[in-house]
UniProtKB/TrEMBL annotation:
Keyword Signal listed: no
UniProt superkingdom: Bacteria
Origin species: Pararhizobium capsulatum DSM 1112
Limits of the ABC transporter domain: 8-243, 253-495
Family the UniProt entry places it in: Belongs to the ABC transporter superfamily.
Gene Ontology terms for molecular function: ATP binding
Lineage of the organism: Bacteria, Pseudomonadati, Pseudomonadota, Alphaproteobacteria, Hyphomicrobiales
Gene3D superfamilies reported for this sequence: P-loop containing nucleotide triphosphate hydrolases
Name of the featured protein: Ribose transport system ATP-binding protein
Coiled-coil blocks: none
Length: 495
């Protein structure tokens, strides 16, 4: 069997869209059995480079070799047939198909001219088992959590028997246990000689998984580290091109007045039970826990998106338990959801339209909206929230960080009393994260009660005055900032 110093080699790769050059002569190699972390802010060129490798985008110049031979995949299928598998950050599963059907979509095992469903489900079950997923492969994807869907995407790639895997933010929707399962699988793949390109904004995990680090900025490769044991600060400064100041701003002091109170809240499905807490005016209240702990279900219920079977929600001491999102919004409680692309913005509509949708009453006159008023209103909040885009630009053309700013602008224009943020920086680069944290702190300074749900332990510790930890749908405890650290939170999360 022939061995190669590199599975994949790229030399002088360029990509232009008209006069705009987005990649500038990239040299990039992946060797058998190594994990190369590909890092950079949103817009650095990581996705474009990955899409070129996986056959989705064609380079404007440069050469690629695969296992020593010329490589120029014209389609993703051609790349897949060569042995390249890519797991996208944005989930691409079909909700009305089963897990097994999604895993083998386009390449169903056949027997006698028909799909061999037994073989398909057995192979799917084996892939799920490798990732610690005890779930039937014949159940529909519809209704599964974002984290479980992410693991199914990974199981799908593992069934390809690929020689190279590109993992784009694979842990963004995963909890601690699921992340460890993924890392264990990556170690097995390395032993089998599989090369892995690992893209992530969770920089602390890079030193756990990466053998080498490549940093991109503004379409160029600006730094390469020979191993993964590099201080996070050093990586971030290479990404942003400047010295990094403190990531988390100082927290303002909260008032004594209680804005939001949750009493004995319970869901009909038992995904959370007997949850009680308060959030004061100007306080940032964090909610932590492993995937499946019930965090998202809880905040969706508080904001009227999911039903409640028992308990109540109070605002300034008055019962306001919402029965719908409209109820919550009218009472000044808004949710910035976990999945901004599916639930936060309308991707095919403009930034201005997205901001306007939650504020039609403020910009309409006798039921009519003039384009001038719409533009003026949107431009004010685009400027106020630092959205890098024009009002007429489609929201789908923005980076993840700027889409999140549009969602925040849409709701904060209503001057809410309670803002609930579910995974506020999921899939967002370090530079954009810092600006999101500034916005959260500004909300608290203005006297808004803020609730932050995050799977990123460093994040929830960094922005919260107090942290409620959930485990298996129960309230495991509430920690003051001075008592909260990664150990104390994880001890409660694993009760």
């Amino acid at each position: 069997m022939t061995t190669y110093s590199s599975i994949l080699s790229l030399r002088g790769i360029q990509k232009s869209y008209g006069p705009v050059k987005v990649l500038h002569g990239i040299d990039f190699d992946v060797r058998p059995g190594e994990v190369v972390a590909l890092l950079g802010e949103n817009g650095a060129g990581k996705s474009t480079l990955s899409n070129i490798i996986s056959g989705t985008v064609q380079p404007s110049a440069g050469d690629m070799t695969w296992l020593g031979a010329a490589y120029a995949p014209a389609t993703p299928r051609a790349a897949m047939d060569s042995g390249v598998g890519m797991i996208h950050q944005e989930l691409k599963l079909l909700p009305k198909l089963s897990i097994a059907e999604n895993i083998f979509l386009g390449r169903y095992p056949m027997k006698g001219g028909r799909i061999d469903r037994r073989a398909m489900e057995e192979r799917a079950r084996a892939g799920l088992h490798r990732l610690g997923l005890d779930i039937s492969p014949d159940r529909l994807v519809e209704g599964l959590s974002t984290g479980r869907q992410q693991l199914i995407e990974i199981a799908k790639a593992l069934t390809l028997n690929a020689r190279l895997l590109i993992l784009d933010e694979p842990t963004a929707a995963l909890g601690g246990d699921e992340t460890q399962l993924l890392f264990q699988q990556i170690q097995r793949l390395k032993l089998e000689g599989v090369g892995i390109v690992y893209i992530s904004h969770r920089l602390e995990e890079i030193r756990l998984i990466a053998d080498r680090i490549v940093v991109m900025r503004d379409g160029a490769k600006v730094k390469e580290f020979a191993n993964g044991d590099v201080p996070v600060r050093t990586i971030v400064e290479a990404m942003v091109g400047r010295p990094l100041e403190r990531m988390f701003p100082a927290l303002p002091a909260a008032a004594d007045e209680v804005t939001l109170e949750v009493r004995d809240l319970t869901s009909p499905s038992n995904s959370f039970r007997n949850i009680s807490f308060t959030v004061r005016k100007g306080e940032i209240f964090g909610i932590a826990g492993l995937m499946g702990a019930g965090r998202t279900e809880l905040v969706r219920a508080i904001t009227g998106a999911d039903p409640i079977s028992a308990g109540e929600v109070l605002l300034h001491g008055k019962p306001v338990t919402p029965r719908s999102p409209i109820d919550a919004i009218r009472n000044g409680i808004v949710l910035v959801p976990e999945d901004r692309k599916l639930q936060g913005v309308v991707l095919d509509h403009s930034i201005a339209e997205n901001i306007a949708y939650a504020n039609l009453g403020r910009i309409s006159r006798k039921g009519w909206i003039s384009s001038r008023r719409l533009r003026q209103f949107a431009d004010e909040y685009i400027r106020r929230f630092g959205v890098k885009g024009r009002g007429e630009q489609k929201a789908g053309e923005l980076s993840g960080g700027n889409q999140q700013k549009v969602v925040l602008a849409k709701w904060l224009a209503r001057k809410p009393r309670v803002v609930v943020l579910d995974e506020p920086t999921r899939g967002i680069d370090v530079g954009a994260r810092s600006s999101i944290y500034d916005l959260i702190i500004d909300l608290a300074r203005e006297g808004v009660a803020v609730v932050v749900v995050s799977s990123d332990l460093e994040e929830v510790l960094g922005v919260s005055s107090r942290i409620m930890v959930m485990a298996q749908g129960k309230q495991a405890g509430i920690l003051d900032r001075k008592d909260a650290n990664d150990v104390s939170v994880m001890e409660l999360a694993t009760i």
